[in-house]
Design goal:
The protein is mostly helical and 238 residues long. It has helices at residues 2-26, 31-48, 54-88, 90-101, 105-123, 128-139, 144-154, 162-169, 180-195, 198-210, 217-220, 223-237. Helix 5 packs across helix 8 (162-169) and helix 6 (128-139) packs antiparallel against helix 7.
């Protein structure tokens, strides 16, 4: 009985997320339609099943509204930065700089997707690294599909500290009292270990699927450079 009750509560809590995914991914509804409908369903679940009062529902709605506005402002700033870079010719300047560093697409992918994407994740977060790094890579000559795949995989490392720590400050600290320094330390350590393999992963995908020789080995050959980045990160952390 306890297991069944737990399963029912879990499914109820999962319903809003599953509904958004179903409406926007499978039915291809626009967010302006899918999100209000999901809010209505979520409010009904909270009122009838979780027995939340109207004041709690109103307060949760207002808090969600202000958080959404904050996220929109951050994303707007990131997209504005990309447009300014394009109009000001910064993209071409970056292309020239990267070619002076290395003309190797594997190295460029690490610099743009992993390093630049990590910086943007810390500054803006909420998907803006992929929104900035992927178009930048396309403008530099990467295939569109390759740019999207690489940008998304590379962004799997720095997400915990995205948007100047918003996942920690809002997602954790707002719920329970924790030692932020301890969470930061162990999160950085875990990310550092996992991050040692991420550049090799997406570079190997790049050379296997989009490379001339269709070989994983060509991507693995740059392991000294990939691990050099992680060694520098370890030095900065400690």
């Amino acid at each position: 009985m306890v297991i069944q009750n737990f399963s029912s509560l879990f499914l109820l809590a999962l319903t809003p997320i599953a509904l958004v995914f179903f409406l926007m991914v499978f039915l291809r509804w626009k967010a302006v339609v899918a999100m209000p409908l999901t809010w209505i369903v979520t409010t009904m679940i909270g009122f009838f099943f979780w027995e939340m009062s109207m004041s709690w529902l109103l307060a949760a709605t207002l808090k969600g509204f202000f958080i959404a506005v904050e996220i929109i402002i951050i994303i707007f700033g990131a997209i504005l930065l990309l447009k300014l870079m394009e109009e000001g010719g910064a993209v071409y300047a970056i292309d020239r700089i990267l070619k002076t560093i290395s003309s190797d697409r594997r190295i460029q992918a690490i610099i743009i997707a992993f390093m630049f994407g990590g910086f943007i994740e810390g500054a803006a977060g909420f998907g803006t690294p992929a929104a900035l790094a992927a178009p930048l890579m396309v403008s530099l000559g990467f295939p569109g599909l390759a740019a999207v795949i690489i940008a998304l995989i590379a962004n799997s490392v720095p997400v915990t500290f995205g948007a100047v720590g918003t996942p920690i400050l809002i997602g954790i600290k707002s719920v329970v009292e924790i030692d932020l320094m301890a969470v930061t330390f162990y999160s950085a350590l875990i990310h550092l270990i996992i991050g040692m393999f991420i550049p090799l992963l997406f570079v190997s995908i790049l050379t296997k699927i989009f490379g001339k020789n269709k070989s994983y080995k060509e991507g693995l050959k740059i392991w000294p450079y990939a691990y050099g980045l992680e060694s520098a990160s370890l030095f900065l952390i400690f």
